[in-house]
Amino acid sequence: MPIAPHQSHLLIIQDDKGRHEISLEGPKYTIGRDPSCEIRLVSQFVSRRHATLVQLPNDDGTYSYRIVDGIPAGKPSSNGILINGRKLRAHNLQHEDRVVFGPKVSATYLLLKRDEVNTAPLDEFDITLIGPNMIGDPEE
Question: What is the DSSP string of 21-35?
C-alpha cells in the first residue's frame, strides 16, 4: 500500500548568533528579535516582529509557506525583506529562496521532498542474497 509523498520544510537562519536550522511544521510563525517570536533573529538590525510565515494548504494535501513583511494584519517592518534580491511585501516561498532581513541576517528556505514509498508486505517470490549453501563448514 503506497503512502502519499512526504515533504519537509526547513529554514536555515544566519544571524549574529551563527547558523541554525528550523524545521517548519506549524500553521504560523513570527520572525524577529522579540523573545516572544517563534523564530528569533539575533541582530540589532532586525525589527521586533520583522516577518510572519503562514502555512498554506495545497490541493494535493501538502502545504507550503508564505512570508509576509511585518505582521499580516499590521504594519510592515522598518527595513522590509529582500527575497532573492527583490524587496517584496509578501512571497510564496519556493525551494532555495533566500530572504534577507538585514546586514548579515538571512534565511534560506528548503523544501525537501520524498517520492511515494511502497509499504506493501514482502511476498513469497522476494529474492534473498543469502542461501543455506553459502554457509561454510565452521571447521574449514
Answer: EEEE-SSEEEEESST
Total domains, the chain: 1
Q: Which residues of 24-57 are buried (b: 16+ CB within 10 A; e: fewer)?
A: beeeebbbbbeeebebbbebebbbebbbbbeeee
Q: How many helices (H) and strands (E) does the chain have?
A: 0, 11
Assigned domain for 73 exists: yes
Q: Which amino acid is at 6?
A: H
d(CA 109, CA 64): 11
Rg for the chain, CA atoms, rounded: 23
User: The whole model's pTM is what?
Assistant: 0.77
Q: What angle do CA 48, 106, 6 make, to 5 degrees?
A: 105
Mean pLDDT, each 10-residue run in order, the chain (140 residues): 69 96 96 96 95 94 95 87 96 97 97 68 59 59
- Supply the CATH number for residue 50's domain: 2.60.200.20
Q: Is residue 1 part of a domain?
A: no
Q: Is 43 within a domain?
A: yes
